[in-house]
């Protein structure tokens, strides 16, 4: 049986808390009051196509609206990693096919966002893996990506995935894997490799995935959002 999640997202409180903990961010920055869940695509440097498949998040949020009682804003938004605006979103989404590059200041800013309660979902769209592993070492020098067990709540908090992330695209034919990084005991970064749900979220005529694969992609995306909101409710 699916777990029904009732979420009341109070963005202003979280945004003030996040901004107050980041050196160099003025407390007088304007805050957007939002009562619905939003995802921001993370714009990064390095030449990778961070912007590909802009229909992905829109379709995911529409699916969440139809299959949960979470209030969402199904629209495409992006935010530059160098901008203070990353602190206005509970969840950031990073994807692409190639190089990623964080400056030292951007790595510090992303770490501050994550340590203050934010969540980053990374989806390897094929070719991203060596670069994102290198750049996330700048964010958390004392960590490596850790593969999450199939029993992790992110695979079971709404829909059930007994074998971890679904295989949406073949890529190199390897099994799909889900990795994490942590702030204390809290999962703050989720990374899917050889899975590629983000492509499954895109409009059907983009990648021509069969309906069952698109459904699996949208379901694991729903789990990610449900998991993120459950974490936010638990923040002190």
Q: Give the topology string: H per helix, E per strand.
A: HEHEEHEHEEEHHH
How far do the termini sit from each other?
A: 29 Å
Quaternary structure type: single chain
Strand content: 15-25%
How much helical structure, as a percent, in the residues? 25-40%
Number of E-state strands:
7
CATH level 1 name = Alpha Beta
How is this structure best described in words?
The protein has 236 residues and is of the alpha/beta class. The protein has a single domain (36-234), classed as Rossmann fold (3-Layer(aba) Sandwich), CATH 3.40.50.12140. 33% of the residues lie in helices and 16% in strands. It is built from 7 helices and 7 strands. The protein has helices spanning 11-20, 55-67, 104-115, 129-139, 197-201, 204-207, 211-234; strands at 39-43, 78-80, 91-96, 119-124, 146-147, 177-183, 186-193. A 7-stranded mixed beta sheet has the order 2-1-3-4-7-6-5, sandwiched between helices. Helix 3 (104-115) links the parallel strand 3 and strand 4 (119-124). The longest helix is centred in the last third of the chain and has 24 residues, at 211-234.
């Amino acid at each position: 049986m699916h777990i029904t999640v009732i979420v009341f997202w109070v963005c202003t409180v979280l945004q003030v808390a996040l901004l107050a903990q980041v050196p160099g961010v003025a407390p007088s920055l304007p805050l957007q009051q939002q009562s619905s869940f939003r995802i921001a695509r993370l714009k990064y440097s390095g030449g990778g196509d961070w912007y590909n498949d802009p229909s992905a998040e829109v379709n995911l949020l529409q699916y969440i609206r139809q299959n949960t009682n979470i209030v969402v804003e199904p629209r495409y938004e992006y935010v530059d990693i160098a901008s203070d605006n990353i602190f206005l979103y509970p969840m950031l989404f990073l994807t692409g096919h190639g190089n990623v590059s964080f400056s030292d200041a951007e790595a510090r800013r992303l770490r501050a966002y994550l340590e203050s309660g934010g969540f980053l979902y990374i989806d390897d769209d094929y070719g991203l893996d060596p670069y994102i592993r290198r750049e996330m070492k700048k964010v958390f020098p004392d960590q490596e990506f850790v593969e999450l067990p199939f029993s992790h709540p992110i695979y079971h908090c709404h829909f059930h995935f007994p074998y971890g992330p679904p295989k949406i695209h073949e890529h190199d034919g390897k099994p799909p894997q889900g990795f994490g990084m942590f702030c204390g005991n809290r999962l703050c970064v989720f990374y899917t490799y050889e899975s590629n749900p983000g492509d499954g979220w895109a409009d059907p005529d983009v990648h021509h995935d069969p309906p069952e694969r698109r459904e699996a992609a949208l379901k694991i995306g729903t789990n990610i959002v449900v998991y993120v909101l459950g974490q936010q409710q638990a923040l002190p």
